[in-house]
Structure to design on (59 residues):
């Protein structure tokens, strides 16, 4: 997905947390934390790729 595609994609609606129990909320938080880790890995990979591309053009 390109940057432009991301800007046009509909944002997910927030979950109604009031209907979830404590354990369900803890599970939901764990899922979100896993997604954050995945996003951070993607960011790191893109930054590393960008750095390597910049290195090619500096020579």
């Amino acid at each position: 997905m390109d940057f432009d595609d991301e800007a046009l994609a509909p944002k997910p609606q927030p979950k109604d947390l009031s209907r979830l129990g404590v354990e369900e909320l803890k599970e939901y938080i764990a899922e979100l934390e896993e997604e954050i880790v995945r996003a951070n890995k993607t960011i790191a990979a893109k930054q590393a790729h960008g750095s390597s591309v910049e290195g090619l053009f500096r020579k």
Remarks:
- The CA atoms of residues 1 and 9 lie 10 Å apart.
- The chain has two helices and no strands.
- The chain has a mean pLDDT of 85.
- The longest helix spans residues 22-58.
